[in-house]
Amino acid sequence: MKRLIAFDLDGTLAESKQPIDQATAELLAELLDLLRVAVISGGDWPQFETQVVSRLPRKANLRQLFIMPTTGTKLYRFDAGWQVVYADVFSQEERSRILDALTRAADESGLRETQIWGERVEDRGSQITFSGLGQLAPLDAKTAWDPDFAKRKRLQAALRTTLHDLSVNIGGSTSIDITRQGIDKAYGMRKLAEHAGVPFAEMLFLGDAIYPGGNDNPVREAGIDTIAVRDVAETRTAISAIIACLRPSQANGRGDPVP
Question: Known catalytic residue: 8?
Answer without folding.
Answer: yes
